[in-house]
Amino acid sequence: MQRRKFIQQTAWLAGGLILAKQLPASALFGSKKKIKGTVTADGKGIKGVVVSDGYSVVATDSKGKYEFDPHPDAVAVFVSTPAGYEFIHENNIARHYWPLKSNGGKKNLNFELHALPKDDNEHTFIIWADPQVKTAKDVQKMMNESVPDVQKFVAAAGADTLLHGITVGDIVWDELQLFADYDKAVAKMGIPFFQCIGNHDMDYNKGGDENSDDTFQQTYGPTYYSFNRGQAHYIVMDDVRYLGKDREYDGYISQNQLDWLKKDLEFVTKDKLIILCAHIPIHKGIKNNTDLYPILEGRNVHIMSGHTHYHDNVIKDNMYEHNHGTVCGAWWTGPICGDGTPCGYGIYKVKGTELSWHYQSTGQHADHQMKIFTKEENNQKQVLVNIWNHDPAWKTEYAIDGITKGSLEQFEGFDPAAYATLLGPDLPKPRGFAEPKKTDHLFKALVSSDAKEITVTATDRFGKKYVSIQKLTA
Q1: C-alpha–C-alpha distance, residues 70 and 28, integer Å
Q2: Which terminal residue of the chain, N or C, has fewer Cβ atoms less than 10 Å from its own Cβ?
C-alpha cells in the first residue's frame, strides 16, 4: 500500500541491521528553530490532527499546519493517525513518523494521509505477544505455524474488514538482526502492524536506558506514540527501563512518557475507548503504576501486555488488563505456555466504544477455549479443566452422562500438560529453563468411578458458549 517518500530517500536498513545511531533534536536543530509541517489528504490540510515529538503535543490548524519547538531529547516526530484514515506503513510495518536523524535537520515535516474507503467504527485488531525468535529454527516455526494461522484468520475475515495488529514486545530474543525476519512475517500476514519495545528488543551495554532503544527506534520509530481508529484511541508505551548492565532491567514508565500521555489525552474525549499497549504487565510488573492509573481514571481502558509467557486477565477499577499468552509459548518449547495456555494471540473486535475478544490458539478453531484432563483418585474420577481466557464474568457448568451437576470449582494449581512437559531435570527441550506456572484459570470436579462422559460448558462474558465433551475412561 502506501510507501513513505522519506523511506525512499534514506537508508533504513543495511543487511537487515540498522547501523546509524539516532540523534536527538539538539544535534540537528538550533535552539531557535521550530519543527513545522502540514498534515494533508488529497492535497487539502486536515484540521485537528495531533502531532508530537514525544514531548510537545499539538493539533493542526484549519489548514492542517502544525508548529512547535523540538525537545532536545526528541528523536522522532509522529502523527497520531486520526479516525477515518489509513495507517501509514511500509510492507505493513507502521511508519507514522519522521525520524529526525534521517532528515538532516530538515524542519518541514509533512504527513500525507489517505481516507479509508469505509466507516471505521467497527474494526478488528490482533495482539501478538512475544514472538521472541532467537534462532533460525525459531524463525522457521514462526513462519510455518504462527504466520499461516494469522493469514487464515485474515482471509476468513474478508477483504472489507478493517484489520491491524500490535506486537507488545519481545519481537526478538536479543538477536536484533532478526528484526528483519519479523518484518518478513508481518509482510506475509497482510495487515498493518504497530510495534512495542520489550526487554529483549534493547541494545545492551551501550550505557543507560537512554541508549538502549537505539536500534529499535531506528527500525520501528518512537517507543511511545498514539493513533486512532473509529471511536478507539490506541496508546503504545515503553515500560522497560534498562539498568545499564547486560540484561538487567525493571518495569518502569519514565516521567517524560507520563507527561506526554497527559497531553495526548487532552485531545481525547472521555467517552472514547482506550487501548493501552505495553510489554511488561502494568498491574504487577511496573514499579510506578500508581503514577499511571490516575491519568487513566474515569476512562474505559483496556491494557494489552505480554512478557510473562502465561495468560491472565486482571480487572482493576475502570481498567481491564489482558496479559497475553505468547506467540512462542514457552520460548518455542512445545505448543503451550507455562500455564497450559496454547501458543497464540488475542483477537479483538471494536464496535463503537465496545470491545469484545477471544484468545486464538495457533492451529486451532476459534472455539478451542479449554482443555479437559481426568485421573482416578480414591475410587473417584477427578476432572480438571483449563479455561485459559476465563475472567470473573465467565460461567462454568458440567454434566455427567447427560445429567447437569452445576458449576465447576475454581482453584489455583498447575496445568497437567505443562507440569508433564516443562518440569524435571531433563525437561523441557530445547530450553530447559522453561517451567510450569501456577494459574487460577483451572477448574475441577470429582465424579463417580462409573461415570462415562463429561460435558463442560464455559460461557464467556459476551454470552458465547464453548462446549467440550470427553469420555471418562475406566
Answers
A1: 10
A2: C
**Does 241 lie in the same domain as 195?**
yes
276 by DSSP, 3-state: which?
Answer: strand
Pairing of β 193-196 and β 225-229: unpaired
Q: What average pLDDT is seen over the chain?
A: 92
Check residue 379 and report its DSSP letter. T
| 414 in any annotated domain | yes
Is 80 exceeded by the pLDDT of residue 9?
A: no
Sheet containing 409-413, strands listed edge to edge, beginning at the edge strand earlier in sequence: 371-377, 380-386, 439-448, 409-413
Which of 298, 328, 361 corresponds to the end of one domain? Answer: 361
Q: Residue 19 is part of which domain span?
A: 5-113
Span 355-409, pLDDT tens digits: 999 999 999 999 999 999 999 878 889 999 999 999 999 999 999 999 999 999 9
Cα distances (Å, whole numbers) of residue 411 to 89, 166, 180, 298, 461:
45, 32, 43, 32, 19
Alpha-carbon distances of 387 from 337, 418, 456, rounded to whole Å: 13, 14, 10
Structural contact between residues 273 and 231, judged by C-beta atoms closer than 8 angstroms: yes
- Number of structural domains (the chain) is 3
Q: Does 434 share its domain with 292?
A: no
Q: How far apart are CA 387 and CA 409, in angstroms?
A: 12
Within this chain, do residues 108 and 152 fall inside the same structural domain, yes or no?
A: no
Contact of 363 with 345, CB cutoff 8 Å:
no
* Distance (Å, whole) CA 201 – CA 198: 5
Cβ atoms within 10 Å of 429's Cβ, excluding its own: 10
- Among left, alpha and beta (phi > 0; psi -120 to 50; other), residue 351 is beta
Asked if the structure places residue 366 within a domain, the reply is: no
Q: Which residue has the cell 510455518?
A: 144
Query: Could you report the per-residue pLDDT of 441-462, keeping only the tens digit for each?
Result: 999 999 999 999 999 999 999 9
170 shares its domain with 270: yes
Largest CA distance in the chain: 84
Residue % of the chain over a pLDDT of 70: 92
Angle among Cα 145, 122, 295 to the nearest 5 degrees reads 90
* Secondary structure element (H or E) that encloses residue 454, with its range: strand 453-459
pLDDT of residue 288: 98
Which parts of 177-292 are beta strand (E)? 193-196, 225-229, 232-236, 240-242, 249-251, 273-277
Would you place residue 220 in the very low, low, confident or very high pLDDT band (cuts 50, 70, 90)?
A: very high
Residue 262 covered by a domain? yes
- My answer on whether 400 and 262 are in the same domain is no
Residue 412 sits in a domain whose CATH number is 2.60.40
